């Protein structure tokens, strides 16, 4: 479908990007927003998965029920110098692979990530005459992403009212 829109969500980038701004994403609202605003045919969610984490498994089931297509990678735990543990899933390659694999299926791509590692991918899509939109936390977004010619950048913070969780007290 040449006129289709696909969205690619870098979960950690969005989760930490909203947390840095003092709010949490309502993923049901995000899915609805992407469908209504952009008529997304597919919305991929790239995230890490910890085997024994039941709360996380429940969250992922909920995301699937909203309509997200999950691409999950096992979380690895690294020790930094000084003994601090770091948890990482490193989903950037997976996101890039899916975007390249599906490139003939969409006309417009929405990337929810401000990670500078995606610069070459975004440039490629612009060269291929794809419409490219990046939605991310402006303060956490790499300068090279915000400066890319042909890429529309939207600050995630401007969507806070529409997409933030309204936790029940």
Calculate the terminal CA-CA distance, rounded to whole Å. 44 Å
Total domain modules: 1
CATH C-level: Alpha Beta
Radius of gyration: 16 Å
How much of the residues is beta strand, in percent? Answer: 25-35%
CATH architecture: 3-Layer(aba) Sandwich
Globally, the shape reads globular
Query: What is the CATH superfamily?
Result: 5'-nuclease
What's the pLDDT, averaged over the residues?
92
As laid out across the biggest beta sheet, the strand order is: 3-2-1-6-7-8
Q: Give the class from helix and strand content and strand pairing.
A: alpha/beta
Low-confidence stretches: none
Helicity, as a percent range: 25-40%
List the helices and strands in order.
EHHEHEEEHEHEHEH
Annotated CATH topology = Rossmann fold
Number of strands: 8
Structure description:
This protein is of the alpha/beta class. Helices cover 37% and strands 27% of the residues. It has helices at 11-20, 27-38, 54-66, 92-101, 119-127, 143-146, 160-163; strands spanning 5-10, 40-49, 69-74, 76-79, 85-88, 108-112, 131-136, 151-155.
